[in-house]
Amino acid sequence: MINPAVTPPPLAASKFAYGRSAPAMRAADLPEICSIRVQDLFDDIPEPLHRHGEPVTPVRSAARAALAGVDMSMIKPDDSVNILCSEHGFSMMGGHAYAELLKTVRDEVVERTGATRVKLALSSAASKFEQKEMIPPHGLDKYFDDKTFVFGPYDPGIAIDTEIGRLYGVRKAYAAKWLIHVHYDDPRETHFHHVNGRLLKSFTMSYARMETRSIFHTNFPTRSANIVPRAIYESPYIRERWAFAAVLSTSPTGIMGVDADNDLIALDRRIGALMLRRYGKMLHLFNNFEPCFAIADDTRWLPYQHAGGLTACALYESGHDHLDLDFPPHPPTHVDKSSIKGPVKAVVMNFAWKFTAAHDLTIAANPGVGKDVLRIHKDKRVVVAEDLGDAVRIAADLTGTDKGIVFDGSYGAINMTRPMAEYLLSKAPDVSREVDEELMPKWLKQRNLPPALATR
């Protein structure tokens, strides 16, 4: 059950990464790194439709089947259409499946409605330059006949009057007759949405001005923040422009399929139930980690790097069951403001996009990475290693633990040190039992979700 390390998705040089250059060595190349299949931890996690490196044809077929049940009759040949997407979808297994879903949605709209004014609108969290490493590599600029654009939270806004008051969306995102929301269901930032309105979260985190996005982040206690994106989605401004949504459905093993609906609330309920079933045990396992160190070895920012289909923020925010809606409505008196916390005592930085905050102890895997880390995180403790192997040894020495987990973009398996593998294998049976017997029934009941929705 403990296997050789799996080969993660390849990395390419990025202007946004520490050191910019792709690393010469991946963590999976180190002799002390092994792996565990997620299905060896939890055998009820289903087999995927698509894995990284496989043809994306099944994704297109699944998208066509899902879209066949969607009403597109409101879209006329001369109407403008914005297909809204988020940059984070491109961090999942190289983004190939997400790109294929976007292409299929475009093809179906054009074929069934005759519309020609169909644009791809990419939400970018930090700047407008990330799209250069997403749109052209997947050929989306040519596929959409150069009708693509990028927008961010600091672009000019548009007032949206809702039941809870006036909020602000990004004007460019909504500047079309019809809107199509193309999303994905991996449980990143569960500590914000709690798998309760997961598919609506983009209305604040992707499509809103920073003022409204900040309301979601900081102005509400953790559970009630979900009323903000729902209020925007249900506003007259959005309803009169709304066409439908399509979502890439996933599990810790890979891409499971595609679901689509004109009713985003109905779609969110279906996807939410499946997320609880497919990801619940892995999330609860992350809640049971002992002190460890993490190896950052993937694209995008540290919290959004994947291991076994879960993003690192699930580990950094662990210690509370964020799927339990009885979670305290207010944060504890003392709040840890660091972005990387929980059981993670240090981060080995091999590859990641530059981030505004870092762990108190970062070990740079080479001098090139170290130069950027030292420059950006002057207030943090940074150790610069000679190479990746040296960095891992330093992390173990300074943290006092040999348990390390690698966030390298892998689905289906987790790369880690052998002591971590042995520990997770020992914890998995109890975690599985607790979720099956206690937590899953509670999670579903709290959301008024029938168990049948979680078995598709």
Describe this structure as you would to a colleague.
With 456 residues, the chain is α/β, with parallel strands linked by helices. It has two domains: 3-45 and 280-427, no CATH class; 57-278, Rossmann fold, CATH 3.40.50. 32% of the residues lie in helices and 21% in strands. The chain has 14 helices and 18 strands. It has helices spanning 38-41, 57-67, 96-113, 140-143, 190-193, 202-205, 210-219, 227-233, 236-239, 264-286, 313-316, 367-376, 388-399, 418-446, and strands spanning 3-4, 33-37, 80-86, 117-123, 148-151, 157-162, 165-170, 178-184, 242-251, 254-261, 292-297, 306-307, 310-311, 344-351, 361-364, 381-384, 404-407, 413-417. The strands form five sheets. Strands 5-4-3-8-9-10 form a six-stranded mixed sheet, with helices on both faces. The protein has a five-stranded parallel sheet with strand order 16-15-14-11-17. Strand 12 (306-307) and strand 13 form a beta hairpin. Helix 10 runs antiparallel to helix 14. It starts with a strand and ends in a 10-residue tail after the last helix.
Distance between the termini: 28 Å
Per CATH, the superfamily of the largest domain is LarA, N-terminal domain
Task: Give the C-level CATH assignment of the largest domain.
Answer: Alpha Beta
Radius of gyration: 21 Å
Number of strands: 18
Helix content: 25-40%
By DSSP (H or I, 4+ residues per run), the number of helices equals 14
Overall domain count: 2
Strand content: 15-25%
Largest sheet: 6 strands, mixed
Kindly report the CATH topology of the largest domain.
Rossmann fold
**Average predicted confidence as pLDDT:** 91
Shape summary: globular
Strand arrangement, major sheet: 5-4-3-8-9-10
The CATH architecture of the largest domain would be 3-Layer(aba) Sandwich
Could you list the spans in which at least 5 consecutive residues all have pLDDT below 50?
none
Structural class: alpha/beta
